[in-house]
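Request: Mind sharing a record?
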Amino acid sequence: MAAAAQEPAAAVTTRPFRVFLLSPADCSGTRARRLQDQGADHDLARRLRGREGAELGEVFAFVSSLYFRGKLAYARAFARPPDGLAGVHVITPCDGLRAPEALIRARDLRRFAGVAVDPDEERYRRPLVRDLRRLAPGWAEADVVLLGSVASRKYADLLAPVLGTRLLFPLDFVGRGDMSRGGLMLRCASEGRELPCVPLVGAERRGPRPERLPKLPRRPSGSHPVRTE
């Protein structure tokens, strides 16, 4: 009799906890500039210009649209942090790791826009490695899942030397573009379905583009479907 299909051994983990690292939004793009426009009169723009500021996760979700919204929803749905520790951390261009609830102002977004997310850029590298080394001892029994590009150097080169085999990424990310990843993560968060993850070190991080996500079924009038455009 044929053996039952199993997940690859690399996708299996015995660690009891799971924390997420979210890659940043493009802070120099059109949507970021639109958010900082003095004439912008919507609520988020007003709060970003105000004294208290706006939440980092909310700002990046606006700037990056579907992709960051998907990452944030997915991470919040499946984080299982050790007691007393946060389960979701956002990588920033020059402030290391920040909570998605951290408040930022327009001047912070401008600072972020002026720093390249590049492992050779000291203003990006130094605070990120600092925070990783500070937090890593508390993650000894945790998987640390990167929700971001795994095919480039900009995250892997800095995260992997500190986290080693604890650093994982969703296998379904391979070959997908940003919008496809965002849509997939929004669906998974809505369905309570966690994606299989594999260690980043030694993994094949490039591959053919998978099929497009199937369209969601129509919902009854008055419901609010998750957007996956």
